[in-house]
């Protein structure tokens, strides 16, 4: 198999970087937001009777 020119190898590496970086960012963003579904939310309580009346 003939060896590819160095410029072509560089182009392939740059293309992979251009594709991988936004994909990795999107995946991490999605996972971070999905994990919020599995954390317990603080209980919402209504304020008690006010002492100022």
Q: Would you give an account of this structure?
A:
By secondary structure, this protein is mainly alpha-helical. It is built from 1 helix and no strands. The chain has one helix spanning 6-35. The radius of gyration is 26 Å and the shape is rod-shaped. The protein starts with 5 loop residues before the first helix and ends in an 18-residue tail after the last helix. The model has no long low-confidence stretch (mean pLDDT 87).
Quick one: how many beta strands? Answer: 0
Integer average pLDDT: 87
Q: Structural class per helix/strand content?
A: mainly alpha
Q: What summary fits the major beta sheet?
A: none
Unreliable spans are: none
What count of helical segments does DSSP give?
A: 1
- Percent of residues in beta strands: under 5%
H/E order of the elements?
A: H
Proportion of helical residues: 55-70%
Distance between the termini: 89 Å
Principal-axes geometry comes out as rod-shaped
What is the alpha-carbon Rg in Å?
A: 26 Å
Summarize the structure.
This protein has 53 residues and is mainly alpha-helical. It has one helix at 6-35.
Provide keyphrases for this structure.
mainly alpha
Secondary structure layout:
Blueprint: H1 6-35
């Amino acid at each position: 198999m003939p060896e590819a020119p160095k410029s072509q190898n560089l182009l392939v590496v740059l293309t992979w970087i251009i594709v991988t970086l936004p994909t990795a960012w999107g995946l991490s963003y999605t996972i971070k937001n999905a994990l919020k579904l599995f954390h317990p939310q603080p209980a919402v309580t209504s304020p008690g009777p006010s002492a100022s009346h």
